[in-house]
Each structure stands twice: as structure tokens, then as C-alpha cells.
Write a structure and sequence with these properties.
3 domains, single chain, 4-stranded antiparallel sheet, binds FE2/S2 (inorganic) cluster, FAD/NAD(P)-binding domain, Rieske Iron-sulfur Protein, 21 strands
Length: about 400
């Protein structure tokens, strides 16, 4: 479905932001238009920048189409396959060694890349709610604001809104925002519940006909320093390609990567190659780079902090924490039956101290975004190994 997109000002921002964006988009041939009001949101007094001819489609139907096309063209798809070490022309998967001339790592954040990419992109957690609204009250469109210019995060967290068909009588308004660096919500002294409440208040002000919050969830996005994805040859290897730094635009980047990486493998020139190159260095973002790297280094100092709880006896069912035990940092989780599970709390990627994410019930790494279930199973790279289990009774 073709729909318009509207970018409007965050209260902390000024009209110059929209004017600069307008000029930049016109310079690259996107026919944006400055409007005096924000269509669909009378609460916002304008101005806004209209992006015509944006696309909205169902991501699962799109993926189904892709799968069918891969199979029709002779490809094969294996699920439940844990990709481990990549070494030359081999990749280890479920204890098998698979040989390939070219390998594409499209797993949100690349494995097999020790430092290069992990100092150019940073993990952030974003929150989303959805609420029902009677059908026909709002036009299908995308809305997003220019972000909090006073935020301590380099990403200037912003609100993003879209409308999704729900049933014959209702649409769902999906609204996200309230982002923070992974594992560091406490730096703004706001927990996940408060962030969801903020989102609900924000949407209620702008869309008064919304019903109660129907669904809520959070997710992790990788934010590249210069806000453009990394798609191309992995800087550390000759025959490995990566797709990462999606900044919440994974469907768009995935589609670009399908075109760009197949051109690179087939040695065809592609005008986007330099733009998305994982090797690029953007000197305009040096101060943001230093800010993020010092934040990362600061995470290692967390080893010195005292336990989040003094004893696991304090741990409720379905809760987790990081505690000190015999000079070790231990990640503990008490399951719904009351059983205690304990793991080494040091991230197997490059040794940062993990944090408990109570909203998602996972252990998250604040350095490069590896994530582990409450039972220690890795679910997000760059780490490829599970957490090491530790035998403990209540401490
Ligand atoms: S993800 Fe790199 S140290 Fe944890």
C-alpha cells in the first residue's frame, strides 16, 4: 500500500531541522513538501515535512514470498541452525562444517567480527505499544518526530507511529520510542513500565479516540554511528559479507542487501557500494564516536559495583539479577516454579558484565548487544556461545 510519511518537530527541536531535511531530500531527488500542519494530528501545530509515496506492507507475507522465491530458484532454507565460528571457507553449524565460497551473515549483528563493526554501531532498546482505534478515523500514514535534542543518547530518541489493519471494525495504532542504550535504562532513572506509560500518554494526547493499550513490547536495534546501515564485505575477512546497523529499518536494509551483496559477489558495479560499505569512516561523527566508546569502556568498570541484591533469597519468581559470589559475578534467575538458575555473568563475546532486563526476562550485554535467555541460551549475537552454568543453591 502506498502511503505518505510526515516528519514533525519534537518540542526540543527547531524549524531549521525540518528545513535542512527538506533541502537534503530535494538534493537527492525526493520530492518532499513542507506543510504548515501535521495531517492526522491536530494536536501538533505544525510545521511538518511530507514524504510522498512511502510503502507499507505485511512483513510476514513479504518473508513468505521471499522464502517461496528462494525455493523456486533452487535454494534451500534450514531453520534451527546455530551458526558458530566462521573460518576461511567454512562455517560451523550444529557441529557440522559447511563449505561455501561466499558467506553472508545477516543475523542482526555480525559474528566473526571482533572489533571493527562493534566500534561503529551500538545497541539500543526501543519500546512499542499498540492501541485500537475505530476504522476510518485516521488515514493510513507514517508519522515520526525529530527526536529529543536534549537526550544523553546520540540517537536523540524519537516517536514513530503507524496504522495497521486489525479487524473489520478497528485498526491498530502502533507507536514506539523511549529508546535507551541496551542495559542502561537506569541512567535516565526510568524503568520499562514508566517508558510504556509515557508512550501511552503521548499517543492519548495526539490521538484521543484511542482505546486502551492492547499490546506492548520492546526490541533491540543496532544504531550505526552515522545512521546508515553497513552492507557489504566484512572488514575482517575476504569472502564474508555482512548486513547490519539497521537502526530499525531492517526490512528496507534487507531488501537493499539482497541487491547490493549479490552484485558484489558477482563483481558487478553497484552505485550504493561505497555508501553502505562497512569499511567507511565518517569523520563528521567523531565526537559521537568518542561519546559511545567511552560509554562502552565505562561498562567494564561495572565489575566494581556491588551486588544488585544482597542474597538470592530476595529474588522473586520470574526475576533475575547480577550478584557477587566468591569473587565471581553471577547472573541468577528464579523460574516460575521457584528453582534458581545461575550463570557466569561475564559476556562470552568480549567480557562485559551482563545486565538483567526485567521487561524481556533476558540477560543483555550493554557493550555490543549480545542477549541470553533467563536460562543462559544465546539469542542475539555477536556472542555465539551460551552462558556457562554455575552450580549454586540460594546465596
Ligand atoms: S556483546 Fe561484546 S562484550 Fe558482550
Amino acid at each position: 500500500m502506498e502511503i505518505p510519511g510526515y516528519l514533525f518537530l519534537h518540542p526540543t527541536d527547531t524549524i531549521e531541522s525540518l528545513q535542512n531535511e527538506h533541502t537534503a531530500t530535494l538534493n537527492v531527488g525526493i520530492k518532499t513538501e513542507l506543510l504548515n500542519e501535521v495531517p492526522g494530528i491536530p494536536y501538533e501545530k505544525g510545521p511538518c515535512l511530507k514524504f510522498p509515496s512511502q510503502g507499507q506492507f505485511h512483513p510476514m507475507k513479504y518473508l513468505q514470498g521471499l522464502c517461496k522465491s528462494i525455493l523456486l530458484n533452487g535454494g534451500q532454507i534450514y531453520t534451527e541452525s546455530h551458526a558458530g565460528k566462521i573460518d576461511g571457507n567454512y562455517i560451523e553449524i550444529n557441529n557440522f562444517k559447511i563449505k561455501a565460497n561466499q558467506i553472508v551473515v545477516a543475523t542482526n549483528t555480525p559474528i566473526n567480527n571482533l572489533f571493527t563493526i562493534h566500534t561503529k554501531q551500538f545497541p539500543y532498546r526501543t519500546y512499542v505499544i499498540s492501541q485500537k482505534i475505530p476504522k476510518g478515523r485516521l488515514p493510513y500514514a507514517l508519522w515520526w518526530d525529530t527526536g529529543d535534542q536534549h537526550s544523553e543518547w546520540i540517537t536523540h530518541p524519537y516517536h514513530y507511529v503507524r496504522l495497521q489493519h486489525f479487524d473489520d471494525n478497528y485498526d491498530l495504532l502502533i507507536c514506539g520510542g523511549e529508546d535507551h542504550k541496551t542495559g542502561q535504562p537506569e541512567r535516565e532513572k526510568k524503568d520499562a513500565d514508566e517508558r510504556y506509560i509515557n508512550l501511552a500518554n503521548w499517543t492519548k494526547q495526539r490521538f484521543p479516540e484511542l482505546e486502551d493499550v492492547q499490546f506492548r513490547w520492546s526490541g533491540q536495534v543496532m544504531e550505526p554511528l552515522d545512521f546508515l546501515g553497513f552492507i557489504g564485505k566484512n572488514p575482517d575477512s575476504a569472502n564474508v559479507y555482512i548486513v547490519t546497523g539497521d537502526s530499525g529499518n531492517g526490512i528496507t536494509h534487507g531488501t537493499i542487501a539482497g541487491i547490493l551483496i549479490s552484485d558484489l559477489i558477482n563483481e558487478k558495479s553497484n552505485p550504493w557500494a561505497d555508501l553502505y560499505s562497512p569499511n567507511r569512516i565518517n569523520m563528521k561523527v567523531v565526537s559521537d564516536y568518542l561519546h559511545e566508546v567511552s560509554n562502552m569502556v565505562f561498562q567494564y568498570a561495572d565489575y566494581l559495583h556491588k551486588s544488585e541484591i544482597s542474597s538470592t533469597i530476595e529474588l522473586d519468581f520470574n526475576k533475575g539479577a547480577i550478584i557477587n559470589h566468591n569473587a565471581l559475578k553471577v547472573a541468577v534467575y528464579r523460574d516460575l516454579s521457584g528453582q534458581l538458575h545461575a550463570f557466569n555473568a561475564i559476556c562470552p563475546h568480549l567480557g562485559c558484565l551482563l545486565k538483567w532486563n526485567d521487561d524481556e526476562k533476558t540477560f543483555d550485554c550493554p557493550c555490543h548487544g549480545s542477549r541470553f535467555t533467563n536460562l543462559g541460551v544465546v539469542i542475539n549475537g555477536p556472542a555465539i556461545d551460551d552462558l556457562k552454568q554455575i552450580e549454586v543453591r540460594d546465596l
